[in-house]
Amino acid sequence: MEQRPELILLRDYPEAMMRALSAQYAVHRYFDAADKDALVAAVGDRVRGIVTGSSIPTPRSLIERFPRAEIIACFGVGVDPIDVDYARSRGIVVTNTPDVLVEDVADMGVVLLLAASRQIVRGDRFVREGRWLAGIMNFTHRVNGGRVGIVGLGRIGCAVARRLEAFGMSVAYHGPRDKQHPRYRYYGDLAAMARDVGFLVLTCPGGPATRHLVGREVLEALGPEGILVNIARGSVVDEEALIAALQRRLIRAAGLDVYADEPRVPPALFDLDNVVLSPHQSSATHETRAAMGACTLANLRAYFDGQPVPNPL
Ligand code: 8YV
Q1: pLDDT-above-90 percentage for the chain
Q2: Residue 1: per-residue pLDDT
Q3: Ligand 1 test: best mutation among 99, 101, 104, 231, most atoms within 8 Å of CB?
Q4: Annotated catalytic residue, options 28, 48, 252, 280
Q5: Is 8 within 8 Å of 288 (Cβ atoms)?
Q6: Which of 114, 118, 129, 171 has the fewest CB within 10 Å, making it most exposed?
């Protein structure tokens, strides 16, 4: 009987995915191993596949511990925590799950934009605390008809833009190159785009190329009527500059799903009433996580069947 390929799992996955992995492969649970070094010493030379995730550090130092690794399968679309260059230098195939989560992540971008502009969390607390009995809540600000700047017009950025066009919003975008979009204005200068829009939605990849792309200059350009939404990566924003901008009302509000050092979120954000906080939930629906699991399994299955993988990086 052919030996089942041996995989190392760097995180826990949805139950159905875990069951399928165990049925098809010899799996080793690195993520909850009592002695990770002992596990690697015992199985590291046999591991052919590393199963990781978009929020799981997968540096060269870890990949090196699996000299026979042939594939790194990422559960998620973002691969910034993975040393992809090193993996490729070893001839390791890297896969991710790009398409299945686009719509949910884009939905979260709209949720956070609306929640921040219409102060949904503040209103909920206002009702729960019985404060409506003493009078009406403050007015908020409209979203429909406004101008939005998308930072990163990839699959998720386009999905956010489509949604916001339905709100009657005009769409601009910033990124490394002009994609000649028929309806959306391109800005090569992010600060210039921030000056011209009322809403800035971050949908770009994480990693060194986008680290602190949004700092004090862009935040000041966005201005006191501006709202920032981050569904990309915490690293894209200079978090200290954002906190200061929110504290000093240099921008109107923010809606955040990602942070610089998850799950640790700066307590200074907890005291602010002009920020909506979400715990990296954008793809975390039952439906999308099941689809991400199926996509990860399909990538692994294709590879070990000697077929082209559906989602090569
Ligand atoms: C991940 C994400 O899917 O896919 C990504 O890049 O940021 C998340 O939606 C989640 O962290 C699971 O790894």
Answers
A1: 99
A2: 62
A3: 101
A4: 280
A5: no
A6: 129
Alpha carbon distance 299, 15 (integer Å): 18
Q: Which H, E and C letters describe 196-214, residue by residue? A: HCCEEEECCCCCHHHCCCE
Q: What CATH number corresponds to the domain at position 94?
A: 3.40.50.720
How many domains does the chain contain in total? 2
Report percent pLDDT > 70 for the chain: 99
| Average pLDDT, rounded, for the chain | 97
Is there a catalytic annotation at residue 280?
A: yes
The amino acid present at 20, given as its one-letter code, is A
Q: How far apart are the CA of 278 and the centre of ligand 1, in A?
A: 14
75 in ligand 1 pocket by Cβ < 6 Å? yes
CA of 53 to the centre of ligand 1 (A): 7
Residue 189 lies in a domain: yes
For the residues 80-105, what does the mean pLDDT come to? 98
pLDDT tens-digit readout, 93-123: 999 999 999 999 999 999 999 999 999 999 9
Known active-site residue 262: yes
33 within domain boundaries: yes
Burial class (CB in 10 A: 0-12, 13-18, 19+), 205: middle
State the residue range of the domain holding 262: 102-277
pLDDT for 269: 98
**CA 76 to centroid of ligand 1, rounded, Å:** 4
Going from the Cα of 211 to the center of ligand 1, the distance in angstroms, rounded, reads 18
The model scores a pTM over 0.70: yes
Q: In the chain, where do the E strands start and end?
A: 6-9, 26-29, 47-53, 71-75, 93-95, 147-151, 170-174, 185-187, 199-202, 227-230, 253-256, 275-277
